[in-house]
TrEMBL record:
<protein>
    <recommendedName>
        <fullName>Malonyl CoA-acyl carrier protein transacylase</fullName>
        <ecNumber>2.3.1.39</ecNumber>
    </recommendedName>
</protein>
<dbReference type="GO" id="GO:0005829">
    <property type="term" value="C:cytosol"/>
</dbReference>
<dbReference type="InterPro" id="IPR050858">
    <property type="entry name" value="Mal-CoA-ACP_Trans/PKS_FabD"/>
</dbReference>
<dbReference type="InterPro" id="IPR001227">
    <property type="entry name" value="Ac_transferase_dom_sf"/>
</dbReference>
<dbReference type="GO" id="GO:0004314">
    <property type="term" value="F:[acyl-carrier-protein] S-malonyltransferase activity"/>
</dbReference>
<dbReference type="InterPro" id="IPR016035">
    <property type="entry name" value="Acyl_Trfase/lysoPLipase"/>
</dbReference>
<dbReference type="InterPro" id="IPR024925">
    <property type="entry name" value="Malonyl_CoA-ACP_transAc"/>
</dbReference>
<dbReference type="Pfam" id="PF00698">
    <property type="entry name" value="Acyl_transf_1"/>
</dbReference>
<dbReference type="InterPro" id="IPR014043">
    <property type="entry name" value="Acyl_transferase_dom"/>
</dbReference>
<keyword id="KW-0012">Acyltransferase</keyword>
<dbReference type="InterPro" id="IPR016036">
    <property type="entry name" value="Malonyl_transacylase_ACP-bd"/>
</dbReference>
<dbReference type="GO" id="GO:0006633">
    <property type="term" value="P:fatty acid biosynthetic process"/>
</dbReference>
<comment type="similarity">
    <text>Belongs to the fabD family.</text>
</comment>
<keyword id="KW-0808">Transferase</keyword>
<dbReference type="InterPro" id="IPR004410">
    <property type="entry name" value="Malonyl_CoA-ACP_transAc_FabD"/>
</dbReference>
Length: 311
């Protein structure tokens, strides 16, 4: 039997019009309505019409991406496509938890909206930064970030995405100094990222305390489908574990490459990327070219995936 993982994108994948081709279906449309109602804002209009700069604000982008991913998951389930494992990149982990039955959608959309607000408030705009470092291994890069943290300002590994692509995060001065030192030590490129804060760094600890409070009132369920989590890169099912790991996730690195390798070790041969874009499918292929990736982001790609997986 083919083992399937549903994987869910994080911030940066949002785009105006995402999910629009599914809205002729009443059940799918209800996700947009439920998100508007849960948040008390017209999120669906922002998703469909923009403007892009408002959609990209972290407290809008997070619930918007979750809404589209949850909606497409329901369509896949209805078509008889169910995963053996789920995982999500950063924010995408919440979409995975909805797919695995840990959180109901309406509760999750409210939590990620608050998560966005907490992250936005943790570090004033312009004081934090992130950058992608290409062509350097994690051990060498960690030595660079440790040196810079001691001398200039906090900076650390934030996303271990695939071989040769690691994102760093921290203070603006720390990230700039780490980019320069990494290039000096042999990194091919250092690319500053257009993000609103230093996500997955120690600077997010204040936000994690606020998030812990929200999650303690959320009553998470055990997972019906195992979730491979960002913090451990291991398959988890217990509600109490998820609560702790979601708090740690805010200031810990996303172990994406390790998570994908773990799912492959568990027998997964097909990765269905559920939500806008194809970023994760690209990363999976860089980790292991032998597995199949199926991005599902609109009606056409949905139909293609259902046909492929029904063979």
């Amino acid at each position: 039997m083919t083992k399937i993982a549903f994987i869910y994108p994080g911030q940066g994948s949002q785009a105006i019009g995402m999910g629009e081709t599914f809205l002729a279906d009443e059940k799918s449309r209800q996700y947009f309505n439920d998100a508007d109602e849960a948040l008390g804002v017209n999120l669906s209009q922002l998703m469909l019409e923009g403007p892009q700069e408002n959609l990209t604000l972290t407290y809008h982008a997070q619930p918007a991406l979750l809404t589209v991913s949850a909606m497409i998951t329901e369509r896949l389930n209805r078509a008889g496509i169910k995963p053996d494992y789920t995982a999500g990149h950063s924010l995408g982990e919440y979409s995975a938890l909805v797919a695995s039955g840990v959180l109901p959608f309406e509760k999750a959309v409210d939590i990620v909206h608050k998560r966005g607000l907490f992250m936005n408030e943790a570090v004033p705009a312009g004081e934090g930064a992130m950058a992608a470092i290409l062509g350097m291994d994690s051990e060498t890069l960690e030595k660079v970030t440790n040196e810079v943290t001691d001398s200039t300002g906090v900076v650390q590994l934030a996303n271990l995405n695939c071989p040769g692509q690691i994102v760093i995060s921290g203070t603006k001065a720390g990230v700039e100094a780490a980019c320069a030192l990494a290039k000096e030590r042999g990194a091919k490129r250092a690319i500053p990222l257009d993000v609103s804060g230093p996500f997955h760094s120690e600077l997010m600890r204040p936000a994690s305390q606020d998030l812990a409070q929200v999650l303690s009132n959320a009553f998470l369920e055990d997972a019906e489908i195992p979730v491979v989590t960002n913090v451990t890169a291991k398959s988890e099912t217990h509600a109490s574990q998820f609560q702790e790991l979601l708090v740690r996730q805010l200031y810990s690195p996303v172990l994406w490459e390790q998570s994908v390798r773990e799912m492959i070790d568990l027998g997964v041969t097909v990765f269905v990327e559920v939500g806008p874009g194809k970023v994760l499918s690209g990363l999976v292929k860089k980790i292991d070219r032998s597995v199949q990736t199926l991005p599902v982001f609109d009606l056409e790609s949905f139909e293609k995936a259902v046909e492929e997986l029904s063979k």
